Amino acid sequence: MRHLVLCLALSSLAAHGAEPLLAHPPGPYPVGFRVIQQAQGRQPAQVLQWYPAGAPGSTLRYADYLATRLTALRQDRSPDELQALRGQQASRLGQRLGSATAQALLEAPMRATLHAAPAGAAFPVIVYAPGVGGPADENAELLEDLASHGYVVLSSIGMGADGKDVEESLAGVEPQVADIRALIRLAESDPQADARRLALLGWSWGGMTQLFAATQEARVQALVSLDGTREPELTRQIDVTRLIAPWLYVSRTPDTISEINRRGIDTRFSLLNEARHSPVTQLIVYPMRHEDFVSRRLREAPPTAYDEYSQAEVRQAFGMVALYVRHFLDAHLKQAPESRAFLARKPVENGAVPHTLRLDASGSLAPRP
């Protein structure tokens, strides 16, 4: 009997590792995924693309996403070296999650598929910017979801110049800004991408650097920051007169006054307040911490990594974040009336657990002309 209970428990854990992260159904399009290895000397060297497909392709597993991290900066690895490195990835994941759950996660089929033919139309473009050192697939399930609703999504690793670690200073902003702008140019050459309808999306450091990029790209029609970096010594360098696109800032539980004081944060400047030329919408998500805004963390962290809110509660909140991101982009890039209605309602009316989300808007939620 004890053996049966243990087997059932392990089976439950393994199933949890394999189940979809987002509970809501995908959009109307199957999703294709491809890895673009650019010519030597071009940056970023590796680009991940999710796109609306005409029909599903072959199965893509979570392990395939992990494999892209091995070639993001090094395309010269031998097959034997790659096999050994994939084994190391699996071993590290097993140490965190347990072997059964880790194996189930690695083998889990994703919503995106490989070798899928494009849907045959031109779709709006989203360029994603990861956090410091973050892999291009760090928010894969959010990006899959957006592609299923009719977006071409591009992402590259969040590194500094020449593949070095990011220097968290103004000088360290420029490499990722250059990568973001390079991905925009790459989208312009893709017949499936309509780069005239363009949004930038990023987490943490990437949620800030995309704002610098937006001041250099007038065509940007929407911005989404997932708990983006807010250091005043950096954000005060942004030219707010050129920051004009509607901006959704999604943030974690606000820090207490004592936490702010301990960290020495200068509260005299807030870009959210200074961005007077951009309609700013702030979504506060109380169950989530900074690191919870990427699907990689929600997939690869053990249940013991969560504290006041359980893993299930944080995952549910992440699902609501995905809905708000998609509807915000639909409202501003597609002028979708149902999305404008979604944004105008209270979070609880959209399915949020009471007291978990708060929505504040400083400007009109209606898309700009």
From TrEMBL:
- UniProt keyword list: Hydrolase, Signal
Q: Which InterPro entries match?
A: AB_hydrolase_fold, Dienelactn_hydro, FrsA_esterase
Q: Where is the signal peptide?
A: 1-17
Sample GO molecular function, one term: carboxylic ester hydrolase activity
Matching Pfam families: DLH
Dienelactone hydrolase domain spans which residues? Answer: 113-241
Q: In its UniProt entry, what is this protein called?
A: Alpha/beta fold hydrolase
Native source organism of the sequence: Inhella proteolytica
Q: Which SUPFAM superfamilies match?
A: alpha/beta-Hydrolases (SSF53474)
